[in-house]
Amino acid sequence: VAITPDEAVEPRYRLLDTPRVFAAEKLREAAEEAPLRQRHAHAVAAYFFEAQGVMDSGTVRLDPWRHAMAADFDNGREALGWARSADDAVRIVQIATAIARALPPSAYREKVALGYEVEPLVERINDPDLLALLCWTFSAASRTQPHRVLTLIRRCVIRLPSESASDTVRSARYSSLCVLARSEVYGGELSAAEAALAAARE
Predict the structure, then answer these.
(1) Rounded to an integer, what distance in angstroms lies between the CA atom of residue 74 and that of residue 18?
(2) Which residue from 75, 108, 172, 188 lies 20 to 30 Å from 13 (Cα-Cα)?
(3) SS3 state at 162
(4) How confident is the model at residue 88 (pLDDT cuts 50, 70, 90)?
(5) Is 124 helix (H, G, I), strand (E, B) or coil?
(6) In this structure, how many other beta carbons lie within 10 angstroms of the beta carbon of residue 140?
(7) Which residues are CB-neighbours of 142 under 8 A, at least 6 positions away?
């Protein structure tokens, strides 16, 4: 079945419920459901990771990007479920951060929940691009439980290289340091705010 939400989005295809259930049963009978879900999760994670790179490149505007990403929210949540069950930290970060960034402002609670879900994974992630995605996600939640979130941002930023060829890393580092500077100003710590801004200019 082809579904076209509007003229701005390419047609989407999905199975009706009956053939979908039938296909799932056949996959389980053939012991192929688990490996298929794994391949699906890996493919969705790679797609979401690449999509965030496109967003950070500055070649697309935020609203059209969010609109395009919304078509894959169900795929993302399904893949995230597999990643949780497999304790796959990399895929959890790739998927959860993309959904959190693409959700509209009205879905703030889900954004925050996704941010807290990836919180325990900070120390397990070493790739700068993934750390940058964590910075973006935590920054979006900085107005809720600010002390907790700002601590998380610091934990990520300190591990990001000041010089990087990655648009995602440079953009996340700059934005996160600005969030930290703003917080220090509100707390009356002007010297710390100046240090954060100086680091952002590097």
Answers:
(1) 18
(2) 108
(3) coil
(4) very high
(5) helix
(6) 22
(7) 149, 150, 153, 179, 183
Query: Quick one: tokens of 85?
Result: 């069950």
Q: pLDDT tens-digit profile of 15-67? A: 788 888 888 899 889 988 889 999 999 999 999 999 988 888 888 898 989 98
Q: What whole-number distance in Å separates Cα of residue 82 and Cα of residue 153?
A: 27
Radius of gyration of the CA atoms of the chain, in A: 19
Residue 139 in this model has a pLDDT that exceeds 80: no
Distance, in Å, from the CA atom of 171 to the CA atom of 51, rounded to the nearest integer, reads 15
Model pTM score: 0.79
| Cross-strand partners of 2 | 13
Predicted confidence at residue 5, as pLDDT, reads: 57
* Strand residues in the chain grouped as ranges (E): 2-3, 12-13
